[in-house]
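Researcher: I'd like a structural prediction for the single chain below. Treat it as a standalone chain; there are no partners to consider.
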Amino acid sequence: MNKHSKLARKSMLIFGTALLFGTAVLSGCSSNANNAGTATETSDPGGGIDHSNPLTITVFNNAANYQGEQTGWYGKLIKDKFNITLNILSPQVAGDQLYKTRSASGDLGDLLIIDNSQLEELIPVGMIMDMTDRIKNTEYLSKYVDNHFKPFNAAFESINPEGKIYALPTFVSDTSPTTYSEEIPYSSPIMPWDYYKGIGSPKLNNLTDLLNALKQMQEKYPKTPEGKAIVPITLWKDWDNGSMENVRWLSNWYGYEQPDGTSTIQLNAKGDIVPLVDDNSMYKKILQFYYDANQMGLVDPDSATQDWNKVAEKLTDKQVLLLWYSWQRGFYNTIERGTKGDGNVAVPIADTHIIQNSDAYFGNGRVFAIGSKAKNPERIIEFMDWLVSPEGLRYYTNGFEGFNYEKMSDGKFKLTEVGQIAFQENTPVPEQYGGGGYQDGQSKINTMIMSDFVVDPETGEFYNNNYWSSTIEANKTTLTKEWQNTYNASTPTEYYQKNNMIDIVPNINTSLGSDSSDIKNKRSQISDYVKNTSWKMIFAKDQAEFDQLWNKLKSDVVGLGWNDVIAMDTERAQKIVKLRTDAVASQ
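Model: Treating it as a single chain, here is the predicted structure.
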């Protein structure tokens, strides 16, 4: 779920990406459950640190979909282990004004999960703590300093000439700068396999074929078995940032992305830069697709008023026919359903050519930092160090050993039956672990320093349980086999690669410079206008109104300072193109 970092963009539940079309193993934290709940308030996991006094850490968190105290099993876990309580402040819940108000006061919080651009604003005004010396003494974070943290911080040379470590990038993988490890692209066409087969599995050559297939499915499958209305396409506004997110991400299907740190341009793998409001932009093409869909009665009438949480409910109930983000499958797909041929799967469209960022070797657009006024920074560092330890990563990604997963005789891990459905079912957690529902109690931090594409030293496999050998074996279901036989590939990523339908580009995470107050003001006005007009165009009464709104958008944004903002974004995109070239050359 952006900034979006690329994987965890706006408001995401973090969980496993629901391997292929199967396991919806979601999770919240991870570790060896034998260690859970055993520490006391005066325990000393770090050595020399006094935990006898309770500590509440104020977490200013752009990634969080939740505001308030962390409760449930994860809350109990860190309370027992560190005598820490997390109080989470979420701009996604409270609104963007929260950042402006708190940064103006000079104290954003204790632990900060913020965008790269905000980091650039806060370092020069003394609101970020220098962690260089503190990280040297950590057990786990120190292992990643040279390959990941120093290179990232060094990119902020204009405000950090000494290369100090002010921040730790998020979702860092430990593979390589050009590797893509996931079995499906982040954004690609995904649909319910049984419904698609039910209309004869028509070949999809283009978006027109997709719309016709969705119409056929809608007519054949108007309601779920429980009587809930099925909608072919559902949209939501609360992820919209520089532009309309549901448009931005479908642009990836045709090779164009909107780089983080920009809002007025799209970029392809060759380095071509296209203005968002160009008549030939992919942004316009996808707006036209959604408009056409709405004219055919395919767009959810709740789209303009619902939020992501409502969409998540519909995904859980299999009420949506077209999914576009890999982890959306996790709300419904399970191994049990897969054995019946039931689940959401990739359904490639022949004329697509996807742009896909590689693993986030250098991180993903957001950072963990410590506020300069934080009390007890040594305890915050200790907590962050634990987050990247094998125990901390297992809790975050896989829950409790013995509850969500178990160790097999070969030393590797295997999901329990509970672990396969704990997220979707919000399975009750045993009282010894804190009680409540599993999903309710997951980590509300909702982002990671090191990602689940890091190898667990105990098992030799990724922390991401979708890629455990046991899960892959369990996932050889009817659904998986039928898909593989149909597309002659083991995974969607392999299919797209074999058919030359994907460009994997290095995932660049760097300093792109922060906006001046003038540019920031212009960008904000333009973004609001682009978003509002995009929604109006999709729901326009006819093509004439659609075209009129587009032409007005193109001319009006010029008066809002478009030329100044696009000049800045073009410069940033050119930097990304150069860094991608350098990353490929370094391999």
